[in-house]
Specification:
Radius of gyration: 22 Å
Shape: elongated
Number of strands: 5
Structural class: mainly alpha
Order of helices and strands: HEHHHEEEEHHH
Number of helices: 7
Distance between the termini: 22 Å
Length: 203
């Protein structure tokens, strides 16, 4: 969904799907990390704390924890969520829906590298994102939505991908296939899987 309509679509989904408490919009790396910290401080699910808040013996503690949780969410960009009070654990479509603004697109170089050691990944397809976005408009691909392209620092890419150590060679058949035309991701995955004889499905 294009960035300019994501807030509207997220709010509409929450009004329609009453069991859904929130939606992450845009890029998720920083948003998801902040959300995990908020849930870690809460120590439970929202619905469980809402139920606890309705019990007199534990009410004050649960209400305080819930209020602190909503305050934390107010500082997290890219979120659209419904605020549950202590009336009940089931989400109500009429509960207040809050929409946090979209954060600027990420600097690709801030994304941590998850494969510091590629030993053991021989003959596997490892996802590495050195760029994000695409200037083209292929109808099957989400990368073209924002019409922007960003790159990871070339120095970081060189550091993270040791091009002097080949973990496997791309078969010549695949290289020839790519030269003919630009196949869809599903076709590329199928051909790589077939030629490399990978032990797992990669699509």
């Amino acid at each position: 969904v294009p960035r300019d309509v994501q807030p509207r679509v997220a709010a509409e989904l929450l009004r329609r799907e009453t069991e859904v408490l929130g939606v992450m919009k845009g890029e998720g790396e920083e948003t998801f990390a902040a959300l995990l910290h908020a849930y870690g401080a809460l120590g439970s699910t929202v619905r469980r704390v809402v139920r606890e808040a309705s019990v007199p013996e534990a009410g004050d503690t649960a209400v305080s924890a819930l209020e602190d949780f909503w305050r934390k969410l107010e500082g997290i960009a890219n979120l659209t969520y419904r605020v549950c009070g202590i009336a009940g654990a089931k989400a109500d479509p009429d509960m207040e829906i809050r929409d946090q603004p979209l954060r600027p697109v990420m600097d690709m170089s801030r994304i941590p590298f998850l494969y510091p050691n590629l030993k053991g990944f021989e003959h596997r397809i490892v996802y590495y994102e050195s760029s994000r976005g695409c200037p083209f408009s292929c109808s099957y691909c989400l990368s073209s939505i924002d019409k922007s392209v960003r790159f990871r620092s070339l120095e970081l890419v060189k550091q993270e991908l040791d091009d002097t150590t080949a973990y496997f060679d791309i078969p010549q058949e695949i290289l020839d296939f790519y030269k003919m035309y630009r196949p869809s991701p599903l076709v590329r995955a199928y051909c790589l899987e077939k030629e490399l004889n990978t032990p797992v499905k990669i699509y």
